[in-house]
Amino acid sequence: MFTGIVEELGEVIAVETLDDACRFRLRGPVVTEGAKHGDSIAVNGVCLTVVEHEGDEFTADVMAETLDRSSLGALTVGSRVNLERPMAVGARLGGHIVQGHVDGTGRILERKPSENWEVVKISLPADLSRYVVEKGSITVDGISLTVVDADPDFFTVSLIPTTLAMTTLGIKQPGDPVNLEVDVIAKYVERMIGDRAVGEGAAR
Q1: What is the pLDDT of residue 200?
Q2: How much is the CA Rg of the chain, to the nearest whole Å?
Q3: Nearest C-alpha neighbor of 163 from the set 5, 21, 33, 3
Q4: Parallel, antiparallel, or unpaired: how do β-strands 143-151 and 137-140 relate?
Q5: How far is residue 162's CA from residue 26's CA, in Å, rounded to a whole number?
Q6: CB–CB of 43/81 below 8 Å?
Q7: pLDDT beneath 70, residues of the chain
Q8: Which among 147, 139, 151, 130 is positioned nearest to 194, based on CA atoms?
Q9: pTM, to two decimals
Q10: What are the residue boundaries of the Lumazine-binding domain, all occurrences included (predicted)?
Q11: CA of residue 29 relative to chain centroid, distance
């Protein structure tokens, strides 16, 4: 479980393409401190398992399903990535509940800078739009953000200087892909209401 509070901006050191998977070597001095085989680290919002760890670098395998559902397949050597370790039990939940299970991808559509913040417009897959509401939470490339405007095919977020300086959203440009994870609570509520409606229909 993660919170969407990015700990550091890491870097892809190597990419090994396999038959139906990919192995990444990534550098991240903060998230690798005390890391060991089998630990989880979120990379651009995708929960990955540490396979090997040496110094400030670690490797992680990404299966075809994850490559198909996320933007990790677009990473190359030198790409910057958002890194976060799982939340410790008893720690403060600074963002919102993030599973590290990407629901789909969007693309940066527009950036509007201002003096103290920047508004970013991001495309939204049709099957995810019902989970995105104004002032609700959404995870973009592993970053917990508050939705400003929510339309059927896009949403906007406002980024403060810290977010721009410490995450990939400070460097991504229109056309670049981003990973999206909607609020899991919304999905559970939808499922429970749907099951209840089905049950009530059967009772009639």
Answers
A1: 55
A2: 18
A3: 5
A4: antiparallel
A5: 23
A6: yes
A7: 195-204
A8: 130
A9: 0.90
A10: 1-96, 97-193
A11: 20
